[in-house]
Amino acid sequence: MKTQVRADVDLGKKRERAKRDSSDSESVKCVEGLNHLPALKARCPDTRMVGVGDRESDVYEVFAAERPAGMDWLIRAACDRCIAHPERYPWDTVTASAPLGEIELELPAHRKMARRTARLTLRCTQVIASA
Fold first, then answer.
1. Deepest of 8, 13, 47, 85, by most Cβ within 10 A of its Cβ?
2. pTM across the whole model
């Protein structure tokens, strides 16, 4: 199992991360983690598992990888790529689904952003990535 937490000094350096060698990217670490799923699922055959990934997990290799039965993904989308669904794009597809819940969070001021209220809406639907 691999996890990664970015150090505070590395926050806000997206352009620098984009210039790194692809073998050191956070997305590659997500793909490497897929190799551990069959062994994990074999140890817990009756447990439904959900792999959770941030935007770095939104890469084709993750969606195209074979995964054990009873294993699903919950991935924060980074790309609005074309999918095999009547809505054609995941953001439109998810936005068209019924909200499962909503919460408001009070966020403190941070760097150049003023204190604010964020409204988070949870939506969920199945999408199939096109090859």
1. 85
2. 0.56
